[in-house]
Design a protein that fits this description.
Single alpha-helices involved in coiled-coils or other helix-helix interfaces, alpha/beta, disordered N terminus, homodimer, 13 helices, seven-stranded parallel β-sheet, GTP binding (chains A, B)
Chain lengths: 361, 361
């Protein structure tokens, strides 16, 4: 069949497809269900007990595209919500090659030494295309991947950024209900995901490399100004001086930025993920941040703002999806784009014409 | 009447307003139209001739909220479009006190010395609230306000940022059709307007003041990374050294940023608007920028992207307006916000419920 379709596609031959085969099983026998759908109540019970296998099953439902699975997932999330919120949510980003996996491994181990549990999630809507799915290869986190109190979950790979971000945010709820009081959310730091992560974490950590000029240029514009802390990796051996120079440069650059909404002044530290140097200092900074935002009320305020943000974000995304997935609209958009690019019509009247089609029929 | 209203306002006296006067004209006589609506064709003709009075009338129609005026305005814009585009569009921003008006005055005069014409527009959706409408007081631009080749237009004050930005963008089209080959668009640099301006200009100039720490903190986060050039004002007298220090700091900070989409490396210069020092150097930088983006094709590409951007931006804005201006939706939103903030419902199911109301009935 593959072969025939290929030929058809390239128009080389006309091949008779033949008739459909009759069914080989008796259609009057009702097929046995392969798998019973999980029960939301049981899932919630398991999650609240901290059972990691149940948590993983529930996350799979959250990520599933099947409407049946989604219905159960939403029920589970709703029941877990009152038990969620009790964690430190930390976003970690950095360009490929900055040593994110190794760093998360040692940061995570440091966190776990102090007790509690750690979930490591990721947002990477591009993973399907780029193949290099972050967290996909758990073995890159040697220590965490075998730690009983760590739960590592690669990015859900299917769907739009909005969809992927929603799934990650829902997974945070489930992890928290399961007693995970530390949540790391990883992104690759080169795309659009950072705004989404920034909108679901309490602290945003940017991993940078020492270097001048081009070596520092991989990170996407605007991310630096989102960071609550910048940490410069690979501050070891011959590289220490360069790392310290980069630290001084970043510090002086941050002085030129206005204060963050929290009133916190972002700090810049150096460390070595590979040689495990400077890790407690990084975590002391994060502790200081949480003390600071607990004291000034920003922590609670930001959490509320984020919940509100995601409600409006979801609405806006769905409004757009409903509009742009309309085939008639798509066709007209393509035409209007050309008119606009050729200066035949203004952007605004073009938009108005398409909106008229949408709202008036 | 003025007097009575004033008294009422201050509650000093209660003054009987009296009864309404009967009409003094025969109501059965059809009133003569006070003013004939302008004719689009005539407006276009005047604009293409470069007549500034006609241009100003057309801009008033663009800014008008009356549907009749809007219809004419859109026709005029459509007819002007093929004659638009031939200008350098420069966004100029800086915090209040940075000396924007004085700077625009001397920059503008410098530009006009080289020939051509200059339109100075503004985006400031907050001007109604803050009273301090930018460009509202033309006399702050002493030289430009009396220059025959300059057209200064304050920000349209009514409406949302989206609406104000649209009007400014349409005004650019009319100005260009009238032969204005230099367009300045001013913003205050503390709000949301900068993204809008950035999306309608070729070059984004950020005016800063010399100073350390808090003095540099007025500017909104993220704006620095948008700038194609940063210029430090008040580099005169005792302040020269501080300005040069700030220049060095900004230069070193910009080194940490990734390259801009254009490939251009933003430059940092010092000048004095008041003493008119360093003005040609600032303009040489802008000339270099235009040579650079002309040569690498970015200029044309960005203009196309901006036209497309505004089409999609208008669509998204209208989709949101249609949704949020629905009284039933507004009521449900208020309820759902509370559920979300109290962790009774997830952001996503809350959004889903409201969307169901919108789409299904």
């Amino acid at each position: 069949m593959e072969h025939i379709e290929n030929d058809e596609q390239f128009g080389g031959l006309t091949v008779n497809k033949g008739v459909n085969q009759p069914p080989v099983v008796n259609p009057y026998l009702r097929p046995r269900r392969r798998r019973v759908l999980p029960n939301a109540g049981e899932l919630v019970e398991g999650i609240l007990k901290g059972d990691i296998t149940t948590l993983a099953r529930a996350v799979t439902l959250v990520e599933s595209l099947s409407p049946e699975h989604q219905a159960i997932a939403q029920e589970v999330i709703e029941k877990c919500l009152p038990h969620s919120g009790n964690s430190r949510r930390i976003g970690i980003t950095g360009v490929p090659g900055a040593g994110k996996s190794t760093s998360i491994d040692v940061f995570g181990l440091h966190v776990l030494k102090r007790g509690g549990k750690l979930a490591v999630l990721a947002i990477d809507p591009s993973s399907e295309r780029t193949k290099g799915s972050i967290l996909g290869d758990k073995t890159r986190m040697e220590k965490l991947s075998v730690h009983p109190d760590a739960f590592i979950r690669p990015s859900p790979s299917a769907g739009s950024l909005g969809g992927v971000a929603r799934k990650t945010r829902e997974t945070i709820v489930l992890c928290e209900a399961a007693g995970f009081n530390n949540i790391f959310v990883e992104t690759v730091g080169v795309g659009q995901s950072e705004t989404a992560v920034h909108s679901m974490v309490d602290f945003f950590l940017l991993i940078q490399l020492a270097g001048t000029g081009d070596e520092l240029q991989g990170i996407k514009r605007g991310i630096m100004e989102m960071a609550d802390g910048i940490v410069i990796n690979k501050a070891d051996g011959d590289n220490i001086q360069r790392a310290q120079l980069a630290q001084a440069q970043f510090r002086s650059a941050l002085h030129l930025f206005p204060p963050t909404a929290s009133g916190w002044r972002p700090e810049v530290l150096t460390y070595s993920g590979y040689f495990e140097l400077g890790i407690p200092e990084v975590w002391d900074m994060i502790d200081r941040y949480f003390e600071f935002v607990d004291a000034n009320g920003y922590f609670e305020r930001k959490r509320s703002e984020q919940a509100r943000y995601w409600m409006y974000e979801t609405i806006d995304e769905q409004l757009r999806a409903h509009f742009y997935h309309n085939p008639e609209i798509e066709r007209m958009l393509a035409e209007k784009e050309i008119s606009v690019l050729n200066n035949q019509q203004s952007s605004f009247t073009a938009a108005r014409d398409i909106l008229d089609l949408y709202f008036k029929g």
